[in-house]
Design brief:
With 102 residues, this protein is mostly helical. It contains three helices and no strands. It has one domain. α1 packs antiparallel against α2.
């Protein structure tokens, strides 16, 4: 069961890294559009930004919550408590990021 919890943790971190890389790429695209001389913008750019940001805000707290539930269900109370605390911290960060962007 330790391997399942570790595998889910690595998968969650990989999803977050992928979403962060996507957000970084969108930021670079927005920066280059802002500083270029032409006024050609991709029409679905705002949709992609909203989708990437929303995906990050959902993935950030949902990974620790799923892992905490699985850890408690398999009897790993210490791991469940750690991931529950991580979930609480991730919810605070996600709420802060949501309020900054609305």
């Amino acid at each position: 069961m330790k391997r399942l919890i570790a595998g889910l943790t690595l998968a969650w971190l990989a999803v977050l890294a992928g979403l962060a890389w996507w957000i970084f790429g969108l930021g670079m695209e927005g920066w280059s559009d802002h500083h270029s001389n032409n006024d050609v913008h991709r029409p679905d750019f705002e949709r992609d930004v909203a989708l990437a940001g929303g995906g990050f805000l959902v993935a950030l707290p949902s990974g620790p919550l799923v892992i905490a539930i699985l850890a408690y269900a398999t009897g790993r109370r210490v791991a469940g408590t750690i991931y529950l605390v991580l979930f609480t911290a991730a919810m605070i960060v996600a709420q802060f990021l949501y309020r900054q962007n609305t």
